[in-house]
Amino acid sequence: MPVIHRRVIRGSLMKRFLFAALALVGCTASIQAITVSTPTNGAQLTSPFTVTASTSMCAGVPAVSMGYSIDSGTAMIEPTSFTAKVATSAGKHVLHVKCWGKNTHDEVLLNITVAAAAISDITVTTPSNGATLSSPFTLTASTKTCASKPAVSMGYSIDSGTAVIEPTSFSAAVSAPSGAHVLHVKCWGQGVADQKLLNINVVQPTASKGPTVPSYAYVQQQIDLLPNWRIKHDPATPGTATGSMTLVSDPTLTGQTVKYLTKFTDAGGILYSNTYGHDTDSKSFVYDVHVWLTADSVLSNLEMDGNQVIRNGDTIIYGFQCSGYSGVWEYTENAGTLEQTKAHWLKSTAPCNPAKWTRNTWHHIQISVSRDDSGNVTYHSVWFDGQEQPINKTVMSEFSLGWALGALVANFQVDGLGASGSATIYVDNLKMSRW
Question: For the segment 199-225, what is each residue's pLDDT rounded down to a tens digit?
């Protein structure tokens, strides 16, 4: 009996040891590998706040996804390393930062207190939250207060991109790649900042793109490749400027692209122009061009216009530019008389600023204009990357300049911005249609 008793005791001790070991293994397996960089437990926050977390393991197995929820709300699924903007009501909450692995899950709980948000009256007229848009789209917004203080500026960004600064009331053409994005509409005041977040979905524009050109129209292709381009400083701009044109094969759409290099001081501008044909009688024109701006280009205005010397010897100026000064497309009128001419830019309501065009990508610009027999020009519409922006303005734009009868001139002008700098612009397949 004593021997049996000792064996029973030893067996009992062995079982206790085994259970303890298994318990230790179980504790080791459930050690949390979730790392939450922000916020910290007990943090005082304002909404929206940032959650940054990561993990490689989840309850002892490889993690396949993460997520978060507020209190008992639905979890938002994220990758195994993420940063997210989280909005919630003021008050005390439990932030659940979660992970999932094969047949298992785990979470870290953090107590947070969200303060009541300071007041901002950011109003976004367009787009609406959840809107489906084609790029570029129009963003119109304004505010007077920012986090309970007077607003001094506004701006916007796509997702986590760099903010584009705007005044406290603005309308801008915004480019974004296809897909789901968060549009951040921001404000700044003295020592404060705030923003309004909108979910948007950007789709490719419809395949029809652009103005209708009748089959009988005469189309002059690849004007950019013609010889004898004239390059000169525009005396209507201040400062100085020099320009050059070089034929390159990268970037390109047609195999041959013209590189325009413009250098300037004191916001000087260069006019690139060429006579591409002769026609006294056509009354409708479409200026059609593809443009690429390099990331380091500095410019204020990009002018794309045409001239026509009609039967009476006068010149019709179809002047059109994207203005960084006014932030809209502008068009030309003769504000003087035929003999004492005064070329004058008028502002449309269609937003445009070349400084805000997406860089290192091709943009397609199409401008539709027409004239009558009395020297009046109608600026119909401009299409930017397939998106129509109506102008629908008629002005007198006839000038007695003494130019050669019937001359058709294509112009491409680059104006600098600031004390000095340069702009590198690629132009491909500049064509003019007329009828």
Answer: 998 886 554 589 999 999 999 999 999
Q: Which two tokens stand for residue 218?
A: 């005469």
CATH number at residue 415: 2.60.120.200
Q: Tokens representing 32?
A: 């949390």
DSSP state at residue 13:
H
The closest of 307, 305, 424 to 368, measured between CA atoms, is: 305
Domain extent for 129: 123-203
Looking at the fold, whether 302 and 389 belong to one and the same domain comes out as yes
Other beta carbons less than 10 A from residue 374's beta carbon: 7
Q: What is the pTM of this model?
A: 0.59
Q: How many CA atoms lie within 13 A of 32 on its CB side?
A: 14
Angle at 305 between CA 300 and CA 307, to 5 degrees: 140
Both structure tokens of 349? 């309501």
Number of independent structural domains in the chain: 3
Is residue 350 within 8 Å of residue 336, measured between CB atoms?
Answer: no
Whether residue 326 sits in one domain with residue 244: yes
- 126 forms beta bridges with 140
Using an 8 Å Cβ cutoff, are 428 and 290 in contact? yes
Which CATH number covers residue 54?
2.60.40.10
User: What number of other Cβ atoms are within 10 A of residue 48's Cβ?
Assistant: 15
| Residue 222 near residue 430 (C-beta atoms within 8 A) | yes
DSSP of 369-434 = EEE-TTSEEEEEEEEETTEEEEEEEEEE-EE---PPTTEEEEEEEEE--SSEEEEEEEEEEEEEEE
- pLDDT confidence of residue 132: 83
- 203, 226, 253 — which closes off a domain? 203
In this structure, the answer to whether residues 300 and 430 fall within a common structural domain is yes
Query: Quick one: which of 272, 274, 279, 271 has its CA closest to 219?
Result: 279
Q: Are 119 and 157 in contact (CB under 8 A)?
A: no
Q: Please, which residues have CB within 8 angstroms of residue 91's CB and are 6 or more apart in sequence?
A: 113, 114
pLDDT digit string, tens, across residues 388-402:
999 999 999 999 999
- Compute the distance between CA of residue 190 and CA of residue 192 in angstroms, rounded to an integer: 6
